Backbone:
């Protein structure tokens, strides 16, 4: 154990001393084994069964905190490594240096025995081994893979990642003698390969491999895929820079143009290293090229502009640039699609420049690559944060009714670290749409939740949001409209709340689920509401419905009129319905003239609206009358 631990005192203080030791170990980064030794030491010191039970519970809690801290440290390390990679790659100009940096970082990030990279050879129609890290076999380092051959050939052919726990015995791939010989000589077993993509083209494959059997997790595949996206952008950037140099030399203006390109490269690289935004890239690019520049995201939302004269990119221009993989001019505006592999991240548009020489066009495309890198980094950070928020959301919605105070306090503490105050009232909302739009819905739900200061994530087959608020119904209606516009498909939102603390979230989630089901049953797809907004349907479905509030919403004006004037409108309305809607039988029941009944019902119509006696309203009114009588005994 660490040197800060002392001999345990005798008597009842052993439990407190053990708790202090556990906290010290957590603070000092102690291992799980060291946490377990605290209970052993207490037992050896003669602790009572009660003290040992307390220490066992404290040890379990400490191990849970230790695991959570370890997960967070691992995610932070991965994000830091990706940031470092982006900075390193952005600062490299030589293609060989870029490729070596990519492979070295892949081996480090995935803790692999070997990492290697193959590039596509358009002339031969295959891929060849370009760079290796950790390899000892000459035959392996000289391999060439035809499209579809082996794991790497299949990745290059399908543009999809593949992983093999043990490649030697994996029958999913087309085994070729030359490849199997090289792999065997290198001693590789577990292999993971992800495509390097530019637009719709696969320019190569990035691999991580172990000399033992290895199960590659989804996190490992996603991590190598993120590195591959950065790598493809950096490779293309280095290629564009080399092409720019060659073109300038052939034009006889090599020195001046290369200096200008290098200066721009350095300035844009500095932006990446300083954590700049899209607006910084736009200003730097406009300063070099002249004209006015505007940056949009994939949805067409404006991210930055350099002046009011900047023109939005024509949709046809974005599509043409994406297909060509280069900047194009459409309607007098230069457009460059911002891509990460085949995925469109956004676009940049340059107006005020009728012509762009090849050198300026490549600088413009370079700005698009740097913008892609910045947007990709921002998304990586957001996705990592969304994973943590999603885990917290799952724990809040599945909190057991008999959960102890310690577990509830732990949830509140985790929420506080994410800026969510669970002591404030929160609304719980479930969003549902067609299956083909659910991925888009999850992204938009997370964006809205962040803007509202809450949490969002998938749960139970729906996108679930937990956001501050005391009026879930209006919030659900607004959210259904906003999410429907963003996804291009009807989005139905059921809501409940407010939840006053962690223990209320599971109940509110169950009520929101019933509300969502009711909306679909009522044919209100694309709408948003709470059970209280569904009238008597909400009363029937709710397990904690505000009955008094329902009566007030339906009969409030009539009750208030009787109370202030001493009239009997409510009694007359009740008699009218009890007598089957007959004015004659109602006047006999009330012992008044029929004109009196008519005048009272006319007053009811003015208070409740002209449609007060329509079938739907009549059903609501009769149910409210019955609940009103029951509530008064």
Residues:
């Amino acid at each position: 154990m660490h040197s800060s631990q002392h001999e345990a005192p005798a008597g009842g203080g052993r439990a407190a001393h053990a708790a202090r030791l556990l906290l010290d170990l957590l603070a000092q980064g102690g291992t799980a084994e060291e946490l377990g030794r605290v209970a052993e030491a207490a037992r050896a010191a003669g602790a009572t069964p009660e003290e040992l039970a307390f220490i066992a519970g404290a040890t379990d809690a400490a191990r849970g905190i230790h695991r959570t801290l370890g997960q967070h440290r691992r995610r932070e390390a991965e994000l830091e490594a990706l940031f470092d990679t982006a900075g390193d790659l952005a600062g490299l100009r030589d293609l060989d240096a870029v490729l070596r940096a990519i492979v070295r970082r892949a081996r480090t990030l995935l803790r692999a025995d070997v990492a290697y990279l193959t590039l596509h050879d358009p002339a031969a129609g295959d891929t060849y081994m370009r760079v290796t890290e950790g390899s000892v076999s000459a035959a392996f380092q000289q391999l060439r893979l035809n499209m579809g051959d082996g794991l790497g050939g299949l990745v290059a052919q399908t543009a999809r990642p593949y992983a093999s726990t043990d490649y030697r015995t994996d029958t999913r791939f087309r085994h070729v003698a030359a490849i199997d010989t090289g792999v065997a000589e290198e001693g590789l077993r577990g292999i993971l390969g992800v495509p390097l993509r530019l637009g719709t083209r696969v320019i190569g494959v990035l691999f991580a491999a172990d000399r033992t059997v290895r199960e590659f997790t989804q996190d490992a595949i996603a991590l190598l895929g993120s590195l591959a996206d950065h790598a493809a952008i950096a490779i293309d950037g280095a290629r564009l820079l080399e092409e720019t140099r060659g073109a300038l030399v052939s034009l006889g203006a090599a020195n001046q143009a290369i200096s200008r390109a290098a200066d721009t490269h350095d300035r844009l690289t500095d932006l990446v290293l300083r954590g700049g935004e899209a607006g910084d890239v736009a200003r730097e690019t406009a300063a070099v090229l002249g004209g006015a520049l505007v940056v949009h995201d994939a949805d067409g939302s404006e991210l930055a502009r350099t002046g009011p004269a900047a023109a939005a990119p024509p949709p046809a221009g974005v599509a043409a640039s994406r297909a060509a993989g280069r900047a194009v001019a459409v309607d007098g505006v230069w457009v460059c699609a911002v891509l990460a592999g085949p995925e469109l991240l956004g676009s940049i548009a340059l107006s005020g420049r009728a012509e762009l020489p090849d050198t300026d066009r490549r600088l413009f495309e370079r700005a698009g690559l740097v913008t892609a890198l910045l947007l990709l980094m921002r998304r990586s950070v957001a996705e990592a944060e969304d994973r943590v928020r999603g885990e917290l959301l799952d724990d809040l919605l599945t909190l057991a009714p008999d959960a102890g105070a310690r577990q509830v306090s732990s949830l509140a503490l985790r929420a506080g670290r994410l800026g969510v105050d669970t002591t404030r009232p929160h609304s719980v909302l479930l969003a549902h749409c067609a299956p083909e739009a659910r991925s888009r819905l999850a992204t938009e739900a997370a964006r809205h939740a962040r803007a509202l200061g809450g949490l969002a994530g998938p749960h139970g087959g729906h996108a679930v949001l937990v956001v501050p608020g005391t009026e879930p119904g209006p919030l659900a209606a607004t959210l259904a409209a906003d999410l429907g516009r963003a996804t291009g498909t009807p989005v139905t939102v059921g809501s409940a709340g407010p939840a006053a603390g962690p223990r209320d979230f599971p109940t509110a989630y169950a009520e929101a689920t019933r509300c969502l089901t009711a909306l679909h049953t009522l044919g209100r797809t694309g709408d948003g509401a709470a059970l209280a907004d569904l009238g008597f349907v909400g009363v029937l479905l709710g397990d904690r419905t505000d009955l008094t509030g329902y009566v007030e919403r339906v009969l409030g004006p009539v009750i208030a009129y009787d109370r202030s004037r001493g009239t009997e409108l409510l009694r007359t309305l009740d008699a009218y319905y009890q007598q089957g809607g007959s004015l004659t039988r109602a006047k006999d029941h009330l012992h008044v003239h029929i004109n009196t009944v008519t005048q009272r019902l006319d007053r009811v119509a003015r208070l409740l609206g002209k449609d007060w006696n329509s079938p739907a309203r009549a059903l609501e009114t009769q149910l409210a009358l019955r609940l009103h009588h029951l509530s008064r005994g």
Summary: The CA atoms of residues 124 and 436 lie 39 Å apart.
